[in-house]
Amino acid sequence: xxxxxDRGASAPATPDSGRRGSHALRWWVLxxxxxxxxxxxxxxxxxxIALPAAQRDLGFSDGDRQWVVTGYALAxxxxxxxxxRLSDLFGRRNTFIVGLVGFAVASxxxxxxxxxxxxxxxxxxxxxxxxxxxxxxxxxxxxxxxxPGERAKAxxxxxxxxxxxxxxxxxxxxxxxxWASWRWVMFVNLVFAAVALVGAVLLLAKHVVAERPELxxxxxxxxxxxxxxxxYGFSHAESTSWTNSVTLSFLIGGAVLLAVxxxxxxxxxxxxxxxxxxxxxxxxxxYMTVFVMGIGxxxxxxxxxxxxxxxxxxxxxxxxxxxxxxVAAMVxxxxxxxxxxxxxxxxxVIVTAGFLIGAAGMGWLTRIGLETGYAxxxxxxxxxxxxxxxxxxxxxxxxxxxxxxxxxxxVASAMINTSQQVGGxxxxxLLSTIAASAAADxxxxxxxxxxxxxxxxxxxxxxxFWWATAIFVVGAVLAAVIIPNKAPAPAEGELVLAH
Length: 499
Fold this sequence. Notes:
Strand order of the largest sheet: 1-2
Radius of gyration: 22 Å
Structural class: mainly alpha
Strand content: under 5%
Number of strands: 2
């Protein structure tokens, strides 16, 4: 077991406890964790807008360009469960700090990149250290806030950061690329990391190891290979086809290895992912929520960005600003729904209603055309989706770590990041393929003049929005069936070291 020098995460601070790990400073701890989480979430989208400028500067091909995104996704997605378990074994504070420093160094290397290979290596490094950082941050939040009322508020704020980071990344990426240089989408992480590092050193409780169980090496190797295969398979499908032999090999191989991993976890003494974590209905339903949301939300950010820039003529900065109403709605929903509604109506109702409201917003977007306006067709949809998905995501983040034992908080937190990452990979491949097919089908029935090509683009966006609407409706049905309608139990707090 890992014992923590925390004189207040689950008990009032004593007069001689000092500042470090003080329960009185738990909201400052939340601020530190929020900054770190924002840095990781931003990185999923902030680089996308800067890619064309980086490509011109470093001179790599369109075919190579996807590796700047895929390299990060592969390392991050495949190593998350290992990162979560390492935070349980070696201390959340230690893992958090190592992740911060490593992420900052990798970002500095990426910003200073003089070649395509150097840039991709830096992105892989960001993914590796992000896989340490993200689960450690959520598990620190889990064991710091154990009082139900405060826990709901804290998870609401953290969920707002996680949910809005993608949209904020689009805005920040556009501003930095247009006003400074593409290199600053990397260098900006040094600012986030420095702030979070100072806070971590001053505020987070130190860990003392009393007894450390062994790491599940076979399970770690198998699940890392499985997640790598699944994420790479979907990425490869996006750039080739679903029937491509490489795509099929990685997807089938990943699925088989995932089944082997589940079998292994029932037979080892110290499993990497104890199955009790995912078989609990509250936690399992929460992982499902984030997974389905990851699939559907891809359509919002990617295709709506294309629509605003290519069809409406918005600049990257204007596109980022256009997403801010969704960010505001998501912040309001994330911070208000858990503390106000969770005790009254329960998580089943919040998540189910959130998916349905999000589906209504996504359905509204299917009405866009070449001549439609932002205020009438885009803005109402963004607000609806922000209100629906924000409350559902914050509730899922709280439910994903509900009732976990102290020694499992890290890997339980990693599961929610893994669900989101794999869901995003599926959404990228699935919806991109559907959109491309819709555009091709439209052009096959008309003469391909400039107007027809523009209309074909809109057809591809609206088709993807219809599919995302259906995905959110499926999410609502699954939530109504799986998630129990009782308040999520707090996780076990940090153990107090006796003096």
